[in-house]
Amino acid sequence: MTDKDITQLFKKLKDDSDTNRAFDADRSWKLISERCGFDSEQKESNYGFRDHVEYYVWQITHATAKPLIASLAVFVFMFSGWVGATNASFSALPGDKMYQVKLTMEKVQLNLTGDQMKRSKLQVEFATRRLDEMVELAALTPQDMSSNRVQLAVNNFKTEVAHIKEDLSKDNPENTKALAKVVGRKAEIYRTTVSASNNSFTDNVKSQVEEIGEIIDEAEEQAVEVFITAHEELPDEESTNELKHSFEKQFGALTTKELSESQIEKIDLARLLADEGAYRRAFQLLKEVQLDLKQLDIKE
Asked: Which of 279, 132, 108 is nearest to 193 (CA)?
């Protein structure tokens, strides 16, 4: 029965002689049921356990829906603000107001990463960011760049590398070898980054930036030590390949320099030892030549 049918029915009842008498609920109900075509016998409704459960669940959800929606709205608002702050801080440099937010977000990311190897790789990535920040500072005009800001960038890089070196020293051969490989590759990128931007730095910050080179050398030496130890304990293809790669890189860098006869003899001996698999002594000889050259540079 439609709304129109019900309206017409009540109009008819209004003019019916029976409904003009004193109101009688039973007679009126019977009259309406006959006109509408349904049973006039009123039966008591029997509600089962499920009906009661569904009713109370509806009552509870109805009562809590509005507070939940309000809480959700607050959460969305706060989350949106957090994302906005994170995005705003991503390009922040040492000394900027939002820079601390950037570092805090990185710490949160580390804390949420359960796998140790993934955490270590994140540390390497963060170290790369610290160098990128230093390069960006170098691109600023001298009046905009203070030595304090560069020193802060250098200190932050040192902190990240300290974490990496700590991870390299952990007693987990598989993880440390994987991390050492990443560090070895990144060390080359780090040196290139520092070297390419060195001319951009003013004289008052160049001494601070020189610390970076020493830090990179130390991290790379520790990474090489990981593979030397692994090679001595149980030689495998991965360790051998990484040692060959590192040796060729250092050996090649020395051959481009002006060397004395004694230094040439040392690197030639290092080559023979490396070919025989005696990498520890081979790298020691290369290190001796590197230190000799460094001492000469200091004297000059």
From this structure: 132
How far, in Å, CA of 271 to CA of 159, rounded? 35
Fold (CATH) for 110-245:
Methane Monooxygenase Hydroxylase; Chain G, domain 1 (1.20.58)
- Asked if residues 162 and 100 have their Cβ atoms less than 8 Å apart, the reply is no
The pLDDT value recorded for residue 149 is 80
224-258 burial, b if ≥16 CB within 10 A, otherwise e?
bbbbbbbbeeeeeeebeebbeebbeebbeebeeee
293/288 Cα distance (integer angstroms): 9
Q: State the angle between helix axes of 173-197 and 203-233 in degrees (0 to 180), rounded to the nearest 10.
A: 150
Hey, what are 155's tokens?
């200190």
Residue type, 51: D
The rounded distance, in Å, linking the Cα atoms of 212 and 195 is 10
- What is the rounded distance in angstroms from the CA atom of residue 247 to the CA atom of residue 16? 112
From the list 232, 117, 219, 251, the residue with the least C-alpha distance to 177 is 117
Task: Say what the pLDDT of residue 86 is.
Answer: 46
69 pLDDT more than 60: no
CATH 1.20.58 domain range(s) in the chain: 110-245
Mean pLDDT of the 69-98 span:
59
Tokens of 150: 């560069």
Q: Which two tokens stand for residue 100?
A: 């601390």
Does the pLDDT value for residue 113 go beyond 50?
yes
**Spatial distance between the Cα atoms of 292 and 41, rounded to a whole number of angstroms:** 112
What angle (nearest 5°) sits at the alpha carbon of residue 204, between those of residues 202 and 207?
100
Residue 219 has pLDDT above 50, yes or no: yes
